[in-house]
Amino acid sequence: MKDRLCFIISMLIFGSIGIIVRGIALSSAQIALIRGVIGSVFLIIAGLIMKKKPSTEAIRRNFIYLLLSGAALGFNWILLFEAYRNTSITNATFTYYLAPVIVVFLSPFIFRERLNLKKIIPIIFAVIGMLLLVLTGGEKNTYGNGLLGIGFGLGAALLYAMVIILNKLIKGLRGIETTIVQLTMASLVLAPYVILRGSFELSVLGAGDMILLILVGLLNTGLAYLLYFSSIQKLESQTVAILSYIDPVSAVLMSGILLGEKITAIQLVGGILILGGTFMSGRDRKKI
Which residues contact 75 (CB under 8 A, 6 or more apart)? Predict the structure, then answer.
């Protein structure tokens, strides 16, 4: 029961990130960098306390995969945060959940897996769901260009799919150990990118912005991943698959309750098709 509760809490925390990011007066790249730095420091300290220090030899053997996945992770955050800012959290969340279906589509080309009817049907469901979201998200909205936001969400899904694929190639590291290294790599890759795009002064931020930044790093990253990885290995895969949908559902509910966002019937059908396709394709158990 304790492990299930920890997993549910982690899903609720992940589901709240869009609302928190909306309130921070920094660019998406800057928020992503700070998230990576705070989150990696938190998990490094937690790993030392829990005696889960990543193997130096394993890091050396998997260095290229860790570097690429860390870079993909960092830029995935940037695109996802841009999606939150340009379209509704509902559209951004549903679009982002295309990632596992994208992995299924790419697997025959990367891992030489057969693309049979069982795998094709989820892809068809997801594509139809995506088209429905595009039909409802193409207009200008309170936040920005809805269609552009969906495009950012799709880009984030593609990068997340890349992270999932690269994780399949990493050997000798456990989930939380891989995540510690990937968050560190993401921070190292994003730092020069943010600097080249122009420096930023944290001193000009208000108290509310600072609190939200700390929440993104400590709560939505460090604590959420710690709860996730401390519970997932002790739960049955079917339980994990079902409880994982607390993340998108809570994101949609919170956006409606806290931000007053409304969901149309077409959006709902599109989201159900995408999430259904994700469920049928067997969502990857490792969250980043």
Answer: 32, 159, 190
Whose CA is closest to 183, among 58, 287, 56? 287
Residue 53 lies in a domain: yes
Q: Residue 240 falls within a domain, yes or no?
A: yes
Residue 227 CB contacts under 8 Å (≥ 6 apart), including other chains:
6, 7, 9, 10, 13
Has residue 288 been placed in a domain?
no
User: Is 89 within 8 Å of 18 (Cβ atoms)?
Assistant: yes
DSSP-derived 3-state class of residue 153: helix
Containing structural domain, residue 212: 2-281
Q: How many domains does the chain have?
A: 1
Residue 106 falls within a domain, yes or no?
yes
Greatest Cα pair distance, the chain, in angstroms, is 56
pTM of the predicted protein model: 0.88
Q: Tens of pLDDT along 67-86?
A: 999 999 999 999 999 999 99
Q: Which helix (H) or strand (E) holds 73?
A: helix 63-86
Of 58, 86, 55, 59, the C-alpha closest to 70 is: 59
What pLDDT, in 10s, does the model give residues 139-160? 555 556 678 899 999 999 999 9
Amino acid, single-letter form, for residue 191: A
> How far is the C-alpha of 189 from the C-alpha of 204, rounded, in Å?
25
Residue 10 near residue 240, CB atoms below 8 Å: no
